[in-house]
Protein 1
Amino acid sequence: MTAGGADRGQYDAVVIGSGFGGAVAAYQLVRGTQLRVLLLERGMPYPPGSFARTPRGMRRSFWDPTAGLHGLYELWSFSKVRAVVASGLGGGSLIYANVMLRKPPDTFGADPSNDDMAWPVPHSELVDEYRDAERVMQPNPLPPEYLGADPLQDGVPKTEQFLDAARSAGLEPQLAPIAVTFRARRGRGRTDGPPSPGVPFGEDNLHGCVRHTCTLVGECDLGCNQGAKNSLDYTYLDRFLKDGGDRAQVFTCCEATRIEPAAGGYRVHYVEHAAAREIVARRRRAHPAGAELLDPDTDDEAGPWSRAVTAKVVIVAAGTFGSTRLLLASRPGLPGLSAQLGRRFSTNGDLLTFARDCRDPGGDGWRDLAPSAGPVITAYAEHQSGGRRLWMEDAGGPALSEWLWQTAELPRDLWSQRRALGSLVRGHHGGRISRIVARSFGSAAASSAMLPMLTMGQDVSGGRFRLQGDGLSLDWDPDGASSSYFRAAEDLSDRFARHLGGRPSPPLFARWSRGVTAHPLGGCPMGHDIRTGVVDAHGEVFAYPGLFVADGSIMPGPVGPNPSLTIAALAGRIGKAALRRATA
Ligand SMILES: Cc1cc2nc3c(=O)[nH]c(=O)nc-3n(C[C@H](O)[C@H](O)[C@H](O)COP(=O)(O)OP(=O)(O)OC[C@H]3O[C@@H](n4cnc5c(N)ncnc54)[C@H](O)[C@@H]3O)c2cc1C
Ligand code: SF4
């Protein structure tokens, strides 16, 4: 080792991971304090324009350093569960669908008949934290100007049709609060002007790049190349660096591997991924106004480099898989960890389904739902079944996904146009072939008279992780204790599909979808004591003062609605508790 070697010295606090937990907790530690705080993030920063859109770019956009991959998506597959999470500065906010809903107050209460619903934190203690997180992330509904208009003229047709279908199903739908910028902003305030796609604003951010207002292209889950999403890099992480000044540092491309007690706190061992570092350094040279997001001290030898840092307070916020794996791997040095470590996994009841071949009410025509027009999620409706709450939302995807869905209709379209296509081959068309080619697209119903739908809610957090090599195994079966929840979710989505004038997903698809999640939770659950949880109601690890966990892994059960706002609210509270420890 050269230039400083493996030991990166002592900080007041180290935060591991920059998603909703890590970014919010890190900001609490520097706001109005004198603490020196280091944030370690394994992934790279993603300035506007850096998200892949081509097959060539996508093949490098996955995370597996052992295979030389340092990209955005980390995919997990267990025997009955498949999941996607993000790796990058801003964590899941880079690829999430921007929905920021509060967990309803009545879902916090202890219910002796149902352990999963007992939360150690009362709702009343999160009210201010929710409000603070909303103030920073600025979720707002899709502007009314976009409702019902033609998608070719900045319209989002799916939203009103979703709202109507929900009302006709007897529900009370709402526009979803989404953390997206639709109107150009000056400074931190929003203008009152009309929304306008593609307007530049706000280049004073940690990337040093100009952002643009939402262009309604449904690419939120691929990363927003406009910078229109109010993701954590533009919000909490930007504030962490600005408010913290030279006391706040972010080292991207640095992956924590182990934590152990050390004099004055804890030592965090990590590796710096040299290949990813090189990409980040190159991007920074292209945008020199951006913040320094790499360890300035580096080595001459080929990486990855092993390093360690010590701190009085450590906040683990590496996400459900990352934090659980890190604590399981650290158990030899932290033998007093609760036996609950690895337990209480849930998928937050995720179920992805489709309404297909939707027809206009009372008419013969196809509906135009244009699922790629607008942000990915724009509306939601709540439902109760068997004492459990469910949330149903519209979904969408990029224009490319419409082309993919359209291939399902291709054989039918080509068959219906067989005569015209025959005349094309035989040359009997008088040279004018536009009409023939246009008709070969058929009705385009497979891609536009359809709507992906996402249901989530209060399933049962029965899963258990174990360490398997340097990965994880997961024992969880959606057809076990959660099966009645999933039946209710399938019924709800079938009803919705019919109220949209369409057909539900094939039952086999819905069955498969039961184990697919974008909202993995649990593994380091909160509890009242070491017998019932890994961390207490302030995120501090039982038996290890000064060691905290602040992310989706501490959820003792499903959040119900989309979890990011609740993770952020809890992380605000945990950051304050960690601050008290650091300054004690
Ligand atoms: C496609 C998609 C759409 C979604 N849409 C929504 C939505 O609309 N609303 C909503 O509320 N939720 C949504 N989610 C879920 C949401 O993104 C997650 O619930 C949330 O990001 C979890 O926050 P977290 O802090 O627990 O972890 P994460 O946000 O996953 O952050 C963990 C961070 O830690 C880093 N990390 C991991 N291991 C290490 C390590 N060893 N060392 C250093 N760093 C490490 C990771 O790279 C990552 O940046 C969506 C998720 C996906 C995948
Ligand atoms: S719809 Fe497009 S521009 Fe708007 S937030 Fe999503 S990805 Fe960004």
Protein 2
Amino acid sequence: MLLFALAATPAAAQIAVEDAWIRATPPGAKTAAGYLIISADSADRLLSVTSPAAQRVETHITVHEGDIARMREVKGYDIPANSTLELKPGGAHLMFVNIKAPLKEGMMVPATLKFQRVGEFKMAFEVRPLAGAEHHTGEHPGH
Ligand SMILES: [Cu+2]
């Protein structure tokens, strides 16, 4: 009876991930930005991310200094209990560094998220087109 009771105990903390995607890369690119939304029912911290598609994955934030947006590496992200952490274009993002092959639309890129509380969480990012809500090439008046 005791063993049965222990086995039936549900996991204490849960993490859910949605809308995980990576921007497709132009030829020769060494880095790619990844985005996702993480929900946690207990306070947790995303410590690090690894992926077989890149030499390393850094956790970045975007800091605005006047008109200039700069990326800065941070040591992971806190996720308060019953809340979501949203990594999105123009804000916090994952930076896949030294990618091993170009990322093309429709590919799935596996990754492992490491959390302080729930431990490792395996998931995959969908590669989406380069031209999206935010793109930096062409079409700017005055260029
Ligand atoms: Cu970055």
